[in-house]
Amino acid sequence: MKKIVLYNTLNRKKEEFKPLKAGYLSFYYCGPTVYWTQHIGNLRGSVCADLIHRTFKYLNYDVSMVRNYTDVGHLTSDEDSGEDKMEKTAKKENLDPNQIAEKYIEIYNQDTKKINILDPKYKPRATENIEQMIDFIQVLMAKGYAYSTDLAIYFDVSKFEDYTALSRQKLEKNKSGAGSGEVFDHNKKNSADFSLWFFRAGEHKNSLQYWSSPFYSPLVENGYGFPGWHLECSAMIKRYLGNTIDIHMGGIEHVSVHHTNEIAQSEAANGVKLANYWLHNEHLLVNNGKMSKSQGTSYSLNEIEEKGFKPTALRYFFLQSHYRSKQNFTFEALKAAQKGLSNIESKMSKLGKEIGEVNNDFKEKFLDDLLDDFNVPKSLSIIPDILRSELSDKDKLATIFDFDQVWGLNLNSVLDKEDQSNLSEEIKELIFKRDEARKNKNFIESDEIRKEIEKFGYKVEDSTDGTKVFKL
């Protein structure tokens, strides 16, 4: 088998991938904090992780992937200060935090399905793992890595050697792990110490989500409180994947605080390395600037669809930039991506419906590109080469379909294209009603009609011309 080379953020260089267990991949991706509809920048990160997931499956690895949902403990500052993001939205929408989590998990799941992201093996919620987090803290306290104040339990970064190995920052310049002592807790030993458990006291005395614990504070009964965000990932990794995993992935913004803290607490508690390889995807920009709610540039997938773009076109756009590179989103670029994908589908639709054999020469080139730190953009350039080649039409289809197991563009849908005019009157009526619902931005009704159409054995696809259906 060809060797897989990836860029390890921990060592700042490309390294050959060597799994802990032959043919098996343990893979953790930091999933969304489910207090809002994820914008397309978040979705790009999810697609980047999906490409790694798909690559290893393509290579016949048994993949155990965890993508978590953070539904408690992520404060408005990633550095553990401010209000819990879940509770802030709960108050705004007049719902409880669990209802907020369920609402936005469902939206995220719908979006990942539309953009053709594979389901990971595990999708745990942080609130489902409180017992494991409490156990984790008890181990850290017993080993002398954690200490308690009236307001919180902290990890003592001075006790952990090479705390900034991932971020490579000087500790005095490292971002504070839980707000400065002056702002948050005067009894913190070091400003960079980060919270493992917030007691329901101080600025969190009215927190909506809290659990009893064996930890003591004179300000609360029964140790009531909630876990720190950083702890959650460590506890879920340990529960679902073990003490050491192959790959840990997340956004580049997590290097200096979140992932640095994960490493410290996990390795202190477990006594072994947390992850052998750290992968980080870069940011998605909009018009060469940072996404901004106030400027209306934090686009959701629904907003993209409302403008007439297919989710697969957005995925194709994402695939044109390497996961470690910033990517600039504009609607002009997305329009070009949709046109490019449509051209590929059009050319493939003329190749017939007979599937031949995968061409080994093209597969060699595809793997050379893909296994060099998951260079998906370069691997995509093989499509026009295949279409222009002297391969038979059926072998062209087989080869592209094979590679699309990684790209995830649903290119085999070209085999299902059928004349929309031959549809039954009942299906045509449902399509009309769905298009009207989408025009009126009634997406709940639109989704219900989609489910009705699917009951007739059709796949539903949105296009610039409205709803298209294809027989499954």
Q: Uncertain spans, ≥5 residues at pLDDT below 50? A: 175-183
Roughly what is the average pLDDT, rounded to an integer? 92
Strand order of the largest sheet: 4-3-11-12
List how many beta strands DSSP finds.
16
User: Helix count?
Assistant: 15
Q: β content, as a range?
A: 15-25%
Helix content range of the residues, please?
25-40%
Give the quaternary arrangement of the chains.
single chain
**Structural class of the secondary elements?**
alpha/beta
Distance from N terminus to C terminus (CA atoms, Å) equals 35 Å
Which shape, going by the Cα principal axes? Answer: globular
Biggest sheet layout: 4 strands, parallel
Rg for CA atoms = 24 Å
Account of the 3D structure:
The protein is of the alpha/beta class and 472 residues long. Helix content is 40%, strand content 16%. It contains 15 helices and 16 strands. The strands form 6 sheets. A 4-stranded parallel β-sheet has the order 4-3-11-12, with helices on both faces. Helix 6 links the parallel strand 11 and strand 12. Helix 4 packs across helix 5, helix 5 crosses helix 6 and helix 8 packs across helix 9.
